[in-house]
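Worked Example 4.2. Read the sequence first, then its structure tokens.
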Amino acid sequence: MSDMEKTHDVSPEDPEKMADLSQNTTYGQGKIKETRYKHADPNDGDEALKAFAGHEGETIVLTPEAERKLLRKIDLNLMPMLCVVYGLNYLDKTTLSYASIMGLQTDIGLKGDNYQWLGSMFYIGYIFWEYPTNRLLQRLPLAKWSAFNIIMWGLTLCCLAAVKNFAGAVAVRFLLGVFEAAVTPGFALFTSQWYTRNEQGTRTGIWFSFNGFAQIFGGLLAYGISVGVKKHGAAIEPWKIVFLTIGLLTATIGCIFLYFMPDNQLNAKFLNPIERLMAVERIRQNQQGVGNKHFKMYQLTEALLDPMTWAFTFFALVADIPNGGISNFFSQLIVSFGYTADQSLLYGTPGGAVEVVALIVCGFLGDRYGNRVLIGMSGMILSMIGMLLIVCLPLSNNSGRLAGYYLTQASPTGFVALLSLISSNVAGYTKKTTVGALYLIAYCAGNIIGPQTFRPQDKPRYTPAEITILVCWGICVLDLGFIALYYRRMNKRNERIRQEPGYTKLDRQEFLDLTDRENPEFVYTL
């Protein structure tokens, strides 16, 4: 056997033994007295158990060479789709910023704080639909529900080219938020079901980094359209061309995603039957499996009582107040440095390159040294330095303030580190989707607040907004430190439980859809 060795028995466990363990297992000599596995149900385990049906007595442990070959195959088939779609996810949100300096505000009659509310309305739709779409991600085929939303958000973006007034733009922006609400939690689920804990930080950093590539591509596209229309004219306004181009591209990519992207290992077209078993086996160490379609109230309760849920949620809220402001106002911010509208489209693109490098490097180093959270802090500290340059340098120092803006684009490293930890450190499918929903609801709330900090009366410096951003990032760094310390303590607790006399591990415990807190075998990634 070149690809597999006989070390793991995958035959079904004895239900009577399971029931006995789930009711009677206790640990310690009076120190730790708590029932474990009380929710372990052999008939309600992970979807991964279906992969083993008909393979009783076989072995599914990969040799290092076979695993490397399989991982390359998974990467080549999954990562391009995740990267391109996530880049479009960012590009679709920022088209409003490009359009704002290409005539949109005048053409549809925006006044006062109308533009700020258009920026926020996307996230109001997002927050409205975030938890329902997370439940649908659990209940429905993951790839198919994701693809439906990708196609619909592309078509919805096209509709922005047809709006005539503020009311129409508000309605379309709301729907755009509804359809894009499935993307980030869905991609976190893809990452957790296909990759091991030690691979998830790097992979999350890579697909999230395509936000930066999208910023580069979007800036160049908007600049080309703006300059081209001025030179040669066009039948419609340049901002409408931007919405139609990016919207139709997104809908097309969504159709490709629908055809090629598997829901999980069990229906992956690019794997043969043996490779599907191997792909499930390689994620055994995650203690999470590939998904469970049943809602479990105890996991919802645990999610709401877990302090890490609220540490994550607090971070997302505070970190995305700056994001909401900068993503909607970066073009206007660059104009405030003394550049023209067309120059702002072009000069915004290097910021995307900074984001790409920061996310990929921090993701790789976080996995390599086993400390995603602390390494994620580095990008946020770099962003704080950049914002200090914007705040402290005089208006006359255009290049210095522009360099400061570029440094602020390293800020997503902390957000992405925690997003990858939702994949790695939150087990139990109902709990994972709940924590993911709360994290992204807070992300939306921050993005709703963010544009409101850029008030028209604060032009050209926007000093109150810039100071708000600086304070928010400082608070986020402290929160990341707390999260790292808490997980370190939880790992010591689980190790102590495993060493207690009488400790018993269930057969195929990894695929019983247990939560991270009820499974002593769980090791939290830092």
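Now turn to a second chain, presented in exactly the same format:
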Amino acid sequence: MWTTPFSDNGMEFERAFMKNVKRVVVKVGTAVVTRADGRLAVGRLGALCEQLKELNSQGYEIVLVTSGAVGLGRQRLRYRKLVNSSLADLQNPQFELDGKACAAVGQSSLMALYDTLFSQLDVSSSQHLVTDNDFRNGSFRKQLSETVKSLLALKVIPIFNENDAVSTRRAPYEDSSGIFWDNDSLAGLLALELQADLLVLLSDVEGLYSGPPSDPTSKLIYTYIKEKHQGEITFGDKSRLGRGGMTAKVNAAVCAAYAGIPVVITSGYATDSIIKVLQGKRIGTLFHQDAHLWTSVKEVGAREMAVAARESSRRLQAMHSDDRRKILLDIADALEANESLITVENEADVAAAQDAGYEKSLVARLALKPGKASIFFIPIASLAKSIRVLAEMEEPIGRVLKKTELADGLILEKTSSPLGVLLIVFESRPDALVQIASLAVRSGNGLLLKGGKEAKRSNAILHKVITSAIPKNIGEKLIGLVASREDIPDLLKLDDVIDLVIPRGSNKLVSEIKESTKIPVLGHSDGICHVYVDKSAKVDMAKRIVLDAKTDYPAACNAMETLLVHKDLSSNGFLSELIMELQHEGVTLHGGPRASSLLNIPEAHSFHHEYNSMACTVEIVDDVQAAIDHIHQHGRHATSHTDCIVTENHEAAEIFLNGVDSAAVFHNASTRFCDGARFGLGAEVGISTSRIHARGPVGVEGLLTTRWVLRGSGQVVAGDKGVIYTHRDLAL
């Protein structure tokens, strides 16, 4: 769900009621219980039982409604029929099996399996076969409730199924005259009778979609609103094996929800879907009687948002270079003109973060203050200045990178071109939004942004100010602001619309996004930056570089995390001096095996550790090659960020610079220089340790690709007859 920046769409409390849920009715359908060939899906059933056991042990009261008996019985009777068939029967194998007989045979087999699985998990279960006629009897309904209540108190899981073997209806799927018509409606009825807190309907898809789930344009509906969706959604065929399908599930869900029982339709194929639902995770489709109150603002789908950004970017690319440059200058002016408004919203974020008990370093990174820039914040004036610098840089779009004459009168050009649509997920710093947005405009890309919740108001006002400066013929939808992190999964599925994802934040964030999408991801993992001090290093220079690399901004990804020192420096007093200066600055030291014993400091639990604080690891190495080997060994988990050598030995420096396989390698300079602004890129969307496309600080060039432009005068291939290729490089 997407909203306007200043709206409160209720997503934060949309599923907050889950924390009060105790009694849950779970319905599992035939498509989940059985495989496509009709055989039992034992693995899925085992995973289901393990989930229910876990919830049972946590104090939840679980009631299970299961389908699958008819399908299982049909499979077994077919096998028995085949075994007992004569040769003549085998030559004419078509025969019909009575559905009620299938139900009778399958029910005992299904319950035997449930009993075996639950017994293995030390859980007791009970069997309850019912028909709709049973519920016409008030005494039966009362006794049913009392029996189930007693069973739940004993932590027994009651298992219900409609007794199809003795049902009096001939076409239960079509006949809607009964009290319930299938196991979906039975589950809804039981949820009401037993006063459940939640009904979970497990399906073979993730939930209710706006169209066929196989259609890439269909999107998952997280919250069903009867007034909105009832007339918009059409349903396909019923279940491949059962008699319900999504139509039956939605009907049952609507009835239960509007009677006061919240319902979630979600996948029964996932091994932890019920647990995630009860944790309040936004999976599946929620049905709730108050759902219409949570979506009072205009919604924009993920695909629509991405498509709008692409269309706007194409209009931006078609503009003259001077017009694109003017947009950037207008954005800079707008930021300065609205500085007081931006400051008010930003201060509200800072105050909220302080009240929430966030770490001081994070609170400091939130601040957008007037005045001099520091390592913790960038004032509006500095942001505006960086945008103007970006505007004055060489035009990046359409640059001819290579020009070749293929044949007489046939000229080929390789030119720079925007990537298309970028999705940037970043944390904490609202100034990142300004830098990323200005880079997107300069490079002609469409942009979707998701910032951290701690900077919600700052990001919203900055987005509003920036998009207000974009001409109407381009459209403010060039840059979209994502309202909630819960909406990211929808965007990560749009590999046909979004061209690149750049996560800018913690290693956990980067890893989660890489595991969740087919879209190329440009990002970095841990920033384990090393400084190696060689035996020929100048003492004062080495001290300055090491102290700056660690203390200038300890939380930055380009801060030193491991200090490597040549063994000769441990015996001449230099290492002791350096250690004393680091400790004097408040740096906590951890040692490798050699350094910890020599310096009497605690041994580091791992060399692969990013402190992001006033702490680092120290180790002693034999020479420059040992330093390189250490960096490669302990940077093998794809860190390869920034590494530095301090030495006066030119040969050692070249060995290090050519031997270390990192995104950035420095000689006699602090690792803190690895930054887009310091590299003269104007701004950066982040630092990449990927080996495909851009690497290191990513500025405008990292947001471009190439394309080929061929100019001819009527040439045709015609089997290459008569074409004389010259393949001659031409001057640009």
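Notes for the reader: The CA atoms of residues 430 and 459 lie 6 Å apart. Residues 1-13, 171-177, 237-244, 371-376 have pLDDT under 50 and may be disordered.
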